[in-house]
Amino acid sequence: MMQHRSLTVASLGIAQTLAWASSYYLPAMLATAMARELGISTPTVFLGFSLALVVSALLGPLAGKLIDRYGGRPVLVANSFVFAAGLAGLAVAQGPVGMMLAWAVLGVAMAAGLYEAAFAALVHLYGKDARSAITGITLLAGFASTVGWPLTAWLELEWGWRAACMVWAGLHLVVALPLNLLLPASPAARAAPLEEAQTAQASSEPFSAQNASRTAMLLAFVFAVTWFISTAMAAHLPRLLQIQGVPLATALIFAGLVGPAQVAGRLLEYGLLSNVHPLMSARVAGAMHSVGAMAFLFIGVPAGAVFTVLHGAGNGVLTIAKGTLPLMLFGVKDYGARQGLLMVPARFAQALSPWLFGLALDRFGGAALWFSAALGALAFAALMALRDASSITTQRGD
Predict the structure, then answer these.
(1) What is the pLDDT of residues 49-100, one digit of tens each?
(2) Distance in Å from the first CA to the final CA of the chain
(3) How far is residue 391's CA from residue 387's CA, in Å, rounded to a whole number?
(4) Coil, helix or strand at residue 247
(5) What is the pTM of this model?
(6) Phi, psi at residue 111, to the nearest 5°?
(7) What structural domains and CATH numbers belong to the chain?
(8) How far apart, in whole angstroms, are the C-alpha atoms of residue 93 and residue 293?
(9) Collapsing DSSP states into helix, strand and coil, what is residue 26?
(10) Euclidean distance between CA atoms 271 and 25, whole angstroms
């Protein structure tokens, strides 16, 4: 059983690495070349990426419902073909319209093929015991940029951006598709016990409708803020560091610490924090960006590395919290659909983040970091306001 679980985590983790590398991390390496050949501006290419994020936000709840009903394997297997179609569409695009349509198809794939779908697939398989599996796939997929950026850059340099897109499309068919096929099915024999467990959980649910709505709104706010901050930093961190006085070479070194720090944060969650309630680890992680930002703002260049490490570690743990908090606070029932709904504001925030934070940098320079620090503080306050079901029950004296 444990061996099968490890195979599932490894298969899904590798497939997730490929999915993130060929979608979220694609435009950073190809946008300039695409814009030049298609006769459009580079921001227009990123507008296409923003369109994909909006489509992903709108379709995320539907993808979650499908996984709740049919399990992860059929949805993720079908989605391998959608990823391939979207990337092939980019490769053959002859102008802005074709490019936008291809990004829209990739948005469909992202709705049913990134972390939210993978988390829902694991919850469908393992129920409340999915926390360690969720952590495992984020550990593997944490290297998506480490693998994706150099590979995409090399493919573009050797054969051009169109070939790079086609190679990624092919990898979805020859690598991700077989890996997704390895996922356990949801046998009919398991459906009845799972349904009974969900019904029992629903009947004993200590959340009132009001408390459930409040909890969902707080979670949605936290996810939106943390996605906004992480996307803003991913797009502008080297520039932000330089504006604050860090030399270019040092800024690139500091920015390069984010990836290892994310993985370190996830390893911490997998080990030391595995027996701690996800809400507690999320609270610690939620404060890290703001603490690092304040240190950088007050101390200056010497604290630049501290800022990037704290930001990266916090972001790594919060990525896991996006999967585990809804599971621990609401349970297994309708997890996929709820996860999709909770992430709708986050996807819109993610789509707007590079543009809005870029405007803030242009207008306020390094002081724009006060903006992200304040947002992080608000997310921390929202996490402090959250209560799990058991604490609510205790407070009521039930």
Answers:
(1) 889 989 998 998 899 889 988 888 999 999 999 999 999 999 999 999 999 9
(2) 37
(3) 6
(4) coil
(5) 0.80
(6) -60, -35
(7) 2-186 (1.20.1250.20), 199-396 (1.20.1250.20)
(8) 41
(9) coil
(10) 28
